[in-house]
Amino acid sequence: MILYKYLRPERIDVLDTGMIMLSRPRAFNDPFELSPDVASIDSGIKMVGATWAHTKDRVVLSLAENRDSLLMWGHYTDGHKGILIGFDADDEILAEPSKDRRLARVVYAKTRPSRPNIEDFTEEELYFTKSDEWAYEREWRILDSFEAASGSRPGGAPDTWPFRLNPQGGEGSDLRLQGRPSA
Fold first, then answer.
1. Domain count along the chain
2. What would the pLDDT profile of 46-78 be if each residue is shown by its tens digit?
3. How far is CA 134 from CA 21, 131, 146, 170, 181, in A?
4. 103 within some domain
């Protein structure tokens, strides 16, 4: 299966450098992302702090199953001006190996995951569950540790780290640049 990364036009550098940025989940555009219901915490501010502390070492690359979603093109490519890169999900997408890396499909739910303590949540509940309002994205994620990054985070982007793409990926794989869909 091919998974796609929607990118703003200035991110054409991904094709030149072979590097892509993975972000901490707290940098995502969904305000409810990584907002589980932790029964033992009685304050929203404390819950955010506990969640961020629990997930501070993890970074994510968001990919999509669909290459022709007008909403995705509008939201993630600077109003249909950007690019789309396709990756063969059967191959290693990132070059450096990592014991912490995993690829999984996002599950869309009507309610937030709920547990007594932040430590009780599974990775699926924290990193691979989103509100069903976002189901049109048909998202997959690569979850990893920022320690597996190919370099240090850029100064202007404190929640992102560069990872080297695997240009061969595996047998017969290659990076695929896609144009925007016609309306």
1. 1
2. 877 888 888 889 999 999 999 999 999 999 999
3. 22, 6, 25, 31, 20
4. yes
